[in-house]
Amino acid sequence: MSKLLLELKDLTIFYKTLIGWVKVVESVNLSVDKGEIVGVVGESGSGKSTLGNAIARLLPPNSKIQGDIMLDNVNLAKLKESQLQKYRGTSVFMIFQNPLNSLNPVKKVGPQLLEAAKVRYNREGKKVEEKELVEETLKVLKELRLPDPQSIMERYPHQLSGGQVQRVVIGMALLLKPKLLIADEPTSALDVTVQAQVVKLFRQLNEELGTSIIFITHDISLAYVLSNRIVVMYAGRIMEDGDVDEVLRKPLHPYTQGLVSSIPKGNKSQNRLNAIPGNPPSFFVLPGGCKFNPRCNKVMEVCKQKEPSLVEKEGRRVRCWLYE
Ligand SMILES: Nc1ncnc2c1ncn2[C@@H]1O[C@H](COP(=O)(O)OP(=O)(O)O)[C@@H](O)[C@H]1O
Ligand code: SF4
Ligand SMILES: [Mg+2]
């Protein structure tokens, strides 16, 4: 049996803006194995959410994609909306950066969670009593440290705080147990102890069922805690992709080096990505050559002329002229 679950081939994503189509993700080639946890990191605006939403085929209407999204040999990129329903939830589930988008605003939280659990039982071909579904749902909410889960289930999404919505949607993922979970900044509204608990529950889901996870975060130290592999994005491109320990021990790309050196030492969990001087470029006016060249402390003449490609180096992939 193949180990491969997801394979992105030259995935390119555009948004329509007032001045026309803008490319925000450029030719991403990426594969994720069954049971693998891939952390996608990069500063805000690097295209992480766009990439995650595209894989789940949940981009906004002002977007278009090129390339292939092969999930278990089905090309999601080529499916129509009506054909996608079959894959959403069970094959792939997305925790949006804005988790309210994952919930139906006019339905109470309880029925939505029960529905998620029911979908999973149906997929497994098991019959189950309503009472069991309720028990399982309450248990998941308790594990997520939600106080008074019973009353949470009685509420509408807008009656919850940001942190509660985030946990409800994480709960939905834990009940659905999809083959691929895409979690976009899933712990941004949670305090550190709940964040650690979520990481633990994700790891459990991964270990018990082999769920693959794409964990999107701007916080490389958080990605490190959960992931097997790190993919570093900048200006809509993969800059480095490799085993998490190796990337952290010896980052090859100057941008990754900046991210890694911004990890606070000691027990301060605050992240300071601004340790790299300057800001990411605007997609309207990307620099020529290497997109990182205006901020790079190792920039050479060739970097301004030609964009490097993503090449194999020391068992990982890196996009930088220092390695070509
Ligand atoms: N719906 C949209 N329409 C137009 N541009 C968008 C839209 N969503 C995101 N963008 C732009 O796409 C780029 C990448 O955004 P995003 O994928 O959210 O990055 P990240 O998740 O890494 O912060 C940004 O420049 C952002 O402003
Ligand atoms: S290609 Fe050049 S500018 Fe880009 S990261 Fe490498 S050294 Fe820096
Ligand atoms: Mg984002």
From TrEMBL:
Any matching Pfam family: ABC_tran
Keyword set includes Transport: yes
Subcellular location(s) of the protein: Cell membrane
SMART domains listed in its UniProt record: AAA
GO biological process, one term: peptide transport
PROSITE patterns attached to this UniProt entry: ABC_TRANSPORTER_2
CDD domains: ABC_NikE_OppD_transporters
Superkingdom, taxonomy of origin: Archaea
Entry GO MF terms: ATP binding; ATP hydrolysis activity
Keyword Cell membrane: yes
Keyword annotations from UniProtKB, A to Z: ATP-binding, Cell inner membrane, Cell membrane, Membrane, Nucleotide-binding, Translocase, Transport
GO CC field: plasma membrane
Predominant localisation class: membrane
Membrane topology of this protein: Peripheral membrane protein
ABC transporter domain location: 6-260
NCBIfam families in the record: oligo_HPY
UniProt protein name: Peptide ABC transporter ATP-binding protein
Lineage, uppermost ranks: Archaea, Thermoproteota, Thermoprotei, Sulfolobales, Sulfolobaceae
